[in-house]
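Aminotransferase class I/II-fold pyridoxal phosphate-dependent enzyme structure dump, as promised
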Amino acid sequence: MSKLINKISKRMENVKPDAILSFGASIADVDGLIPLTIGEPDFNTPDHIKEAAIQAINDNQSHYTDSRGVVELREAAVKFLADKYDLHYDADEEFLATVGVTEAVFLTFAAILDPGDGIIIPSPAFSPYFNSAAFFGANPIEVDTSKDGFILTPYRLEEAIKQHPETKAVIINTPNNPTGVSYTSEQLKKLAEVIEKYDIFCISDEIYSELNYEHEHESIAKFIRDQTIVYNGLSKSHAMTGWRIGLVYGPADIINVIKSIHEYNVSSLTDNAQFAAAEALKNGQNDGPEMKKVYEKRRALLRQGLAESGIESANPSGAFYIFAKIPDKFGDDDFAFCTRLAKEAKVGTMPGSAFGKSGKGYFRLSYATSEDNLNEAIKRIAKFVEDN
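structure tokens r here:
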């Protein structure tokens, strides 16, 4: 151990290793494991996007760029949101390209949160929300949604704000990771009324917007545009996780602050990857919907298989996850359950409490994998439940 370890920044005392990555690593060496752990499409990036990247390289697009993103990407990004979701932003002032949405979360929290500020996180939720808030000394206010169909209700939102007057922001993730639940337009409208009343930020993470199954995707920014920072990206919709492209939209003055931190942090995104992203947004509007057709089939297959094993789950109306209840006979220690499932049944899943306290007793399964894998995983889970 380094003799300087005690001199590490005190803020790191509030930051824990990412539970999702840590658990995935802990079971990665199980021989014959079928991994339903990772939130990553099993599709390849579409050829027309790869070809655009190759062309950009051949055109010597290998330089620093505008920190907001190259013009081609900025214009394509705002047109994409306008065409798809009727959300309109200025490409020069109200948009920023980031290194994935994970960087967007970190930058936004850096821009708006002071030590002691509160940020409401409907739980279960994507784990970096909690750790990024803690890093900046803010208070992650976890609101349990498990008794409300994994939807944040206006009542619970307002109660949380009243109980925590230090609240400065709330996160809405729709469709949601890990539950797969998505918000309707009416649900968002009612939440917007509460947010507007209390003059707080709304961070709307819409990275799974192209994977909505039950209804058209809606953004809360339609109702409270001036208070909302919108995240989107290409990782899920265009199978581009490794390209690291996040799209951030919001009021110009807020985006400018986030941009300043982005410049200190990474300067700009990889040049040629931005041209690939522009191609995805301009000519790949049907890429996501084509993948969605496959995911819908897999969703039905996995959910039916779990139900036949006596495992209950929330109805996932978006994304590519099922958030399932651990059968009562196994207790509610989800880390222990998922460890046993990995080592004994050789099926990798994620413990629910990796996504917050209200995920205790649940486990997340990703169906971003082949039907063959899903069918085999279903058989193994069924046998595990029956034999124990």
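The domain at 47-283 is CATH 3.40.640.10 (Aspartate Aminotransferase; domain 2).
lmk if u need the other ones
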